[in-house]
Amino acid sequence: MDGAFDDWVDADYLGSGAGLGSLVGEPGAAYGVDLAVYTPFTHRAIGCAMRVHSVLGAGFPEVIYQRALSIELAREGMQAQQEVETPIYFRGQQIGSRRVDFMVEGPQPEKPILVELKATTDLADIHFAQVINYLEAYHLHVGLLLNFGSTSLQYRRFIKSTFHT
């Protein structure tokens, strides 16, 4: 995955040790995204996903986890829109549309968090690329990739700092 995309950061890839704050967690940081304002929201959403996985375990189709996560997000009091369809543009022309699994509340109404679900044995580069492409298409800064298909919940947080025109 290293070098495949030059303007995104996988926050979990960076790790939680020293240096993360100086890269993405401070206003005016190198990546231009204040991750600290998103963290409470991403933690709550990941917590909801963990509760869903602890009850259902692995082995169901993605739609089952999507329905369960919708219930758990509402129970947590998080605003979330499910199956959000948005047009995709290329050089100013609409070429189609895609649906993301969820847009979950973020630090401001215009800054939601994209949440994409999978139910596969392991995450692959194509799943990472999908989230990165969705962040680009929707001009969103933070996305979560949640995989319910393994023995424990897998999750990755992505930060998109710049967008192509």
Strand content: 25-35%
Total strands: the figure is 6
Give the H and E element order: EHHHHEEEHEE
Give the rounded overall mean pLDDT. 82
Task: Determine and state the CATH class.
Answer: Alpha Beta
**Helix and strand composition category:** alpha+beta
Number of domains: 1
* Low-confidence sequence ranges: 1-8, 11-30
3D shape: globular
The main β sheet shows up as: 6 strands, mixed
Q: State the CATH topology.
A: Trna Endonuclease, Chain: A, domain 1
Order of strands across the main sheet? 1-6-5-4-3-2
Report on this structure.
This is GxxExxY protein. By secondary structure, the chain is α+β, with helices and mostly antiparallel strands. The protein has a single domain, classed as Trna Endonuclease, Chain: A, domain 1 (3-Layer(aba) Sandwich), CATH 3.40.1350. It contains five helices and six strands. The chain is globular and about 45 Å long. The model is unreliable at 1-8 and 11-30 (pLDDT under 50).
Search tags:
alpha+beta, Trna Endonuclease, Chain: A, domain 1, 37% helix, disordered N terminus
What is the secondary structure topology, with strand pairs?
Elements: E1 8-10, H1 11-14, H2 20-25, H3 35-56, H4 62-76, E2 80-90, E3 93-104, E4 113-118, H5 125-138, E5 142-147, E6 154-160
Parallel strand pairs: 4-5
Antiparallel strand pairs: 1-6, 2-3, 3-4, 5-6
Helix pairs in contact: 3-4
Q: Can you summarize this structure?
A:
The chain has about 160 residues and is α+β, with helices and mostly antiparallel strands. Helix content is about 35%, strand content about 25%.
